[in-house]
Amino acid sequence: MKNIKFSNLKRYKTSNKPYIHLNNKVNKNIFKNFFIYIILSIIVLLIIFIIYIIIANKNPLLNKNESAFLVKLKKILDKDEILENEMMYKHTTFKLGGPAKFFIIPHTIDKIIKIIKLCKEYNIEFFILGNGSNLLVSDKGYDGLVIKIHEDNFSDLKVKQSDENNYKITVGGGMLMKTLAKKMCLLSLSGLEDILIFLEL
Hints:
The chain has three domains: 1-58; 64-148, Uridine Diphospho-n-acetylenolpyruvylglucosamine Reductase, domain 2 (2-Layer Sandwich), CATH 3.30.43; 157-200, no CATH class. It is 50% helix and 16% strand. The chain contains five helices and six strands; from the N terminus they run ααββαββββαα. The protein has helices at 2-58, 64-76, 109-121, 177-186, 193-200, and strands at 82-87, 99-104, 126-129, 142-148, 157-161, 167-171. The strands form two sheets. The chain has a four-stranded mixed beta sheet, covered by helices on one side. It has a two-stranded antiparallel sheet with strand order 5-6. α4 (177-186) packs across α5 (193-200). The protein is elongated. The termini are far apart. The model is unreliable at 4-10 (pLDDT under 50).
């Protein structure tokens, strides 16, 4: 009886060893595969992100007409004068508005004239933007060209004495009335005091 019990025990032990060894191998393979999948997923996500950035910079939403327009626009303007998909909320006092397809800040009148002619040639809608006060822009943005005229690009001031008591003032369209009134006060010229008082209220 002892021999029989011993032989059964021995057989039981030997039969279980390969099973335990097999489980360890399976567990190691599962962890190895899981780690590989995580690395591959990260790589794929990075590739997708890089492709998205490249596509976004190329602005794939432009059609052939708009692409040709943009090429000619870049020939007229310097790099710092043109922006694509500029958010309009940055340029309105109500802080509202989505992206404008084309947004430019020209620094000369000649450039504005050329750009308006170009818009008419390519049937591109355009809008002249000043300080952006009391202006509501849709969150969908503006599907055209915005021409920004502000103190940053059109604020030249020329003062010329026309006779003993009068002066002729020539000022850029981008200068704010508040700024102009202050400059007139500094030059001891009258006529805009009421505007300054009104704007300070």
